[in-house]
Write a structure and sequence with these properties.
There is one protein chain. The protein is an alpha/beta fold. Helix content is 40%, strand content 20%. It folds into 2 domains: 106 residues, Arc Repressor Mutant, subunit A (Orthogonal Bundle), CATH 1.10.10; 306 residues, Aldolase class I (TIM Barrel, Alpha-Beta Barrel), CATH 3.20.20.70. It is built from 17 helices and 19 strands. The longest helix has 20 residues. The N terminus is likely disordered. The structure holds iron/sulfur cluster (SF4). Iron/sulfur cluster binds next to loops. The site of iron/sulfur cluster has 11 residues, from loops.
Length: 475
C-alpha cells in the first residue's frame, strides 16, 4: 500500500476557528481500537476456543512471539487511572502473585511451539518497578531457558518515575531490560497533587540521561492531556519539559474519563478541568510543538524520533496497533499473562481472570485462568485490517485490504456501502477523502481518526447508540 508520510502531520487547518468548530461538531466517543474488536466483545467461553487459538498462533505466518506480563499493583492510586491495578496489597500477597505468574508461564509454555522466537517481552501494569525486581529477572531468565529470545529482542517495562533512582535502573539493566517507559503525565506540581501522583524523583533530563547511559533504548515518556487544573500554558510547559529531556519516544494520551468503569475518577469531577475546546487546542499545539522539535507523529498519540523503530515502521507502512498502542511488525502475536491480561493472537483474543484471588487459585489448580475470549471471523479480520490501516497509516485501500479474505461479493458490497454511509458526515466536512475505495484521513481530520475508523467497524455500530456510554471521548 502506498504510504503518505505527510498525512496527518500538520495541524494548521484545524487550528483555525472554523477548523475547531468542525472538529467539535463531530466530537464523540469511540473505541481506542488497541484491538479489533474492542475488549468489550470478548465474551465467548474461552474453554471452547483457547486450544484452537493457541495452536493457530503456532501455525500463523507471523511466528514471532511477544510475551506480556501484567503486574497489577501500585503504591498509590492516581485518580485518572484507567488500568486494572490495585493499591494496598501486602508484600506477601504481591510475592504470591509473582510466584503464580511464573507458574502460569509454565502452563502456557506447554502449549506454545518452542521453536517460535521471542521478539518482545513487556511488563506493564500497574507499576512493575514497585514489586521486588528479582521476580522480573527470574521471569526473563525462565523465558530464556524455555524459548529462543532474539538477540535484538525488546525487553521493556513501564516505570513510575516517582520511584526511580539510578540504582533501580542499574538493577533493571542487570536483570535484562533494555527498554523503558516512564509515566511522567505532567510536570506541574499542582496538577500532579490534584490527581494523586508523585513527580519524578530524578529531574527528567537526568532520568532520561541515566537510562540512556545505562544502555536503555527506545526510552519513552508519557504525558496525559486533559487532566484537572491543566491549562494551555501549563501543558505547554509539560510538553517542553519532556522534549528538553530528549527521549526517543513521547506518548501523549487524551485523559479517558470513564467513571462508569473506574469509579475513582469521579473524584476528579469536583476540580476545574479543561473543557473540550481547551483539550483540543492543547493536543493540537503539542502535536505541532513535538513535530517542530523533530519528533514524527506515529498514529494518533505517539511521537518518535526519525530513527526510532516506530518511525521507520510508520514510513514503511508496517506499523501495527496493539494493546501497548503502536508496535513495529516484529512484535508478533502477544501471549499475555497475569490477572486481566489479554492475549492478542492472529485468530482471536483470550482474557484472564481480573479478580486476583481467583486468578491465583486457578493457576495453582493447574489451569489457564481464562475468563473470556473471542474467535475472529473472517469478516472481523477484514475490518481489523481496514481500521488498523486508518489508525496506523492514515489511509486505507479498502477493496485491496478486504479482497484477500475470500468474502462474498454481497458482504463486501454491504461493508463498503455501510461504511461509506457512516463516513458521509466526515466526507462532507473534508475530514476524510474517498476515491475508488481508497480512504484517507486529512490533516484536518486526524483528531477524529478513532471516529472515522469506527465507520468501518460493523460490530460497534449496533452498540454506539446505546444510552450507556461505553467508550471514552476522542479528545
Ligand atoms: S501508577 Fe499507573 S497503573 Fe498505577 S494507579 Fe497510577 S496510572 Fe494507574
Amino acid at each position: 500500500m502506498p504510504v503518505d508520510t505527510n498525512s496527518a502531520n500538520r495541524t494548521d487547518a484545524s487550528q483555525t476557528l472554523n477548523g475547531l468548530e468542525t472538529l467539535l461538531r463531530h466530537e464523540g466517543s469511540a473505541p481506542r481500537y488497541t484491538s479489533y474488536p474492542p475488549a468489550n466483545f470478548f465474551t465467548e467461553d474461552p474453554t471452547a476456543i483457547a486450544t484452537d487459538l493457541i495452536q493457530a498462533s503456532n501455525m500463523a505466518d507471523s511466528r514471532a512471539l511477544s510475551l506480556y506480563f501484567h503486574i497489577p499493583f501500585c503504591p498509590r492510586r492516581c485518580l485518572f487511572c484507567g488500568c486494572h491495578t490495585e493499591v494496598g496489597r501486602s508484600g506477601a500477597f504481591i510475592n504470591a502473585y509473582m510466584e503464580t505468574i511464573s507458574l502460569e508461564f509454565d502452563l502456557l509454555a506447554k502449549q506454545i511451539d518452542r521453536t517460535r522466537p521471542v521478539a518482545q517481552i513487556h511488563f506493564g501494569g500497574g507499576t512493575p518497578n514497585a514489586v521486588p525486581l528479582h521476580y522480573l529477572g527470574e521471569l526473563i531468565a525462565k523465558i530464556r531457558e524455555t524459548f529462543r529470545v532474539e538477540p535484538d529482542a525488546e525487553i521493556a517495562l513501564e516505570c513510575d518515575p516517582g520511584l526511580v533512582l539510578r540504582p533501580q535502573l542499574e538493577q533493571l539493566r542487570t536483570v535484562g531490560f533494555n527498554r523503558v517507559s516512564f509515566g511522567i503525565q505532567d510536570v506541574n506540581l499542582k496538577v500532579l497533587e490534584a490527581v494523586n501522583r508523585k513527580s519524578s524523583r530524578l529531574p527528567i533530563p537526568e532520568l532520561v540521561g541515566t537510562a540512556r547511559d545505562l544502555g536503555f533504548t527506545g526510552i519513552n515518556l508519557d504525558l496525559i492531556c486533559g487532566l484537572p487544573l491543566q491549562t494551555e500554558s501549563s501543558f505547554r510547559e509539560s510538553v517542553e519539559a519532556v522534549i528538553a529531556a530528549g527521549p526517543d519516544r513521547i506518548s501523549l494520551f487524551p485523559y479517558a474519563h470513564v467513571p462508569w468503569i473506574k469509579g475513582h475518577q469521579t473524584a476528579l469531577e469536583a476540580l476545574p478541568s479543561p473543557g473540550t475546546v481547551d483539550r483540543l487546542r492543547m493536543a493540537l499545539e503539542a502535536r505541532d510543538t513535538l513535530q517542530a522539535a523533530g519528533y514524527e507523529a506515529i498514529g494518533m498519540d505517539h511521537y518518535a524520533r526519525p530513527g526510532d523503530e516506530l518511525s521507520v515502521a510508520k514510513r514503511e507502512g508496517t506499523l501495527r496497533r496493539n494493546f501497548q498502542g503502536y508496535a513495529p511488525p516484529r512484535a508478533g502475536q502477544i501471549h499475555a499473562l497475569g490477572a486481566s491480561a489479554i492475549s492478542q493472537l492472529e485468530s482471536g483474543y483470550l482474557q484472564n481472570e481480573k479478580d486476583l484471588e481467583r486468578y491465583i487459585a486457578r493457576v495453582r489448580n493447574g489451569e489457564l485462568p481464562l475468563v473470556g475470549g473471542y474467535r475472529m471471523r473472517v469478516e472481523d479480520k477484514a475490518a481489523r485490517d481496514v481500521i488498523n490501516a486508518l489508525l496506523c497509516q492514515g489511509t486505507a485501500d479498502v477493496p485491496a485490504l478486504i479482497a484477500g479474505y475470500g468474502l462474498s461479493e454481497e458482504w463486501e458490497a454491504d461493508y463498503r456501502l455501510g461504511s461509506l454511509e457512516r463516513l458521509a458526515p466526515y466526507l462532507a466536512d473534508d475530514l476524510v477523502t474517498e476515491h475508488n475505495g481508497v480512504v484517507r484521513v486529512t490533516d484536518a481530520g486526524f483528531p477524529l481518526s478513532r471516529r472515522i475508523a469506527a465507520a468501518f467497524d460493523p460490530l460497534t455500530v449496533s452498540t454506539a447508540a446505546s444510552a450507556t456510554p461505553r467508550y471514552s471521548k476522542t479528545f
